[in-house]
Amino acid sequence: MREKIVAGNWKMNLTFEEGQKLTSEIVQMFRDENPAGVKLVLNPPFPHLYPVKKLIGDTANVFLGAQNCYDKASGAYTGEVPAAMLRSFGASFVILGHSERRAYFGEDSAFLLAKTKQALAAGLRPIFCCGEPLEIREADTHVAFVVKQLEETVFQLSAEEFAQVVIAYEPIWAIGTGKTASAEQAQEMHAALRAEIAKAQGQAAADACPILYGGSCNAENASSIFAKADVDGGLIGGASLKSRDFIAIAKSF
Ligand SMILES: O=C[C@H](O)COP(=O)(O)O
C-alpha cells in the first residue's frame, strides 16, 4: 500500500490572521472527519511555518511543509532559507522543482538536484514537481519531457535518498487555469513515470513512490483523478486555501 498524500501549496497568499484561521479550520475538520489513511501536508509561505506548526500540534497525519529551500546549509546568503532551519522549525516536507520556481526564478535541474540533496540531508522529504508546458503536450512529447526532468534530478539520488521522495506531476497548462488534466491523462503520465522509476531506481522504489497530481485539482474532480491506479494524491493550489474544499479533496480516495 503506497502512502496517500494531499498537500496544499498556499503559494504567495494569506495574511497571518488568514493563515491561522485556515489552519485551525483544516486541523479541526481533519480531526473530526478523519479521512482514513491520508497524510495531509500544509505548505504555507515561510513566515507562517512556525505558527502553523503550533496549530497542527501533535495532530496525527498532518504535516508541515515549506515551498522552497536553498542549496546551501548556512552562511551569507541574504534572503535565503536552508533546509536544516526549516526542519528545526518543524517542517517535514519541502516543495522543490515547482514550475513557478523554474519559470520565474530560473531554477534548473543542477540547482534543483543540489537543493534536493540539501533537503534530504536535513531530514526533509522533497515533494518534487515535474510537468510539461502546453506546446510540449500538443507536440505529444510530454512523457519524454517529464522523464528528462526526473533523470536530471531525483533519478540521480541514491536508493536510500529516493525512498524519501514524493513526486508531483503538474502539467503547467493545468496550473491555476481551471483546465485540469483528465483522469486518463494523469494516469497515463503517472504510469509512465512509475515505469521509469522502476528502470532508474528498481521496482520496489517504483511500487513505493507516491506520485501526486497537481493542476486545478478540486473537490469536484479529485475523486475521479485519485481513483486511477497510479495517482496517490494531489498537490493542491487554489483549492487548498478553502478549508472545506481541501478536506473534501482529502476525503476523495
Ligand atoms: O502547487 C500546486 C499547483 O501548482 C496547482 O495549483 P492549482 O491547484 O491552483 O492549479
Automatic annotation (TrEMBL):
Among the GO molecular function terms of this UniProt record, one is: triose-phosphate isomerase activity
Q: Which domain of life is it from?
A: Bacteria
**Pathway(s) annotated for this protein in UniProt:** Carbohydrate biosynthesis; gluconeogenesis; Carbohydrate degradation; glycolysis; D-glyceraldehyde 3-phosphate from glycerone phosphate: step 1/1
Q: Where in the cell is it found?
A: Cytoplasm
Which reaction(s) does the protein catalyse, per the Swiss-Prot or TrEMBL entry?
D-glyceraldehyde 3-phosphate = dihydroxyacetone phosphate
Instruction: Give a GO cellular-component term.
Output: cytosol
Could you say which EC number(s) this protein's record lists? 5.3.1.1
Q: What Pfam families does the entry give? A: TIM (PF00121)
Task: Please name the GO terms of the biological process aspect recorded for this protein, alphabetically.
Answer: gluconeogenesis; glyceraldehyde-3-phosphate biosynthetic process; glycerol catabolic process; glycolytic process
Q: What is the predominant subcellular site recorded for this chain?
A: cytoplasm
**Which UniProt keywords are given for this protein, alphabetically ordered?**
Cytoplasm, Gluconeogenesis, Glycolysis, Isomerase
Q: Which residues are named in the active-site annotation?
A: H98 (electrophile), E170 (proton acceptor)
Q: Where does substrate bind?
A: N9, W10, K11, G176, S216, G237, G238
NCBIfam families per the UniProt record, alphabetical:
tim (TIGR00419)
The similarity comment for this entry is:
Belongs to the triosephosphate isomerase family.
What's the stated role of this polypeptide?
Involved in the gluconeogenesis. Catalyzes stereospecifically the conversion of dihydroxyacetone phosphate (DHAP) to D-glyceraldehyde-3-phosphate (G3P).
How does the annotation summarize its subunit structure? Homodimer.
Record HAMAP family: TIM_B (MF_00147_B)
Recorded protein name is Triosephosphate isomerase
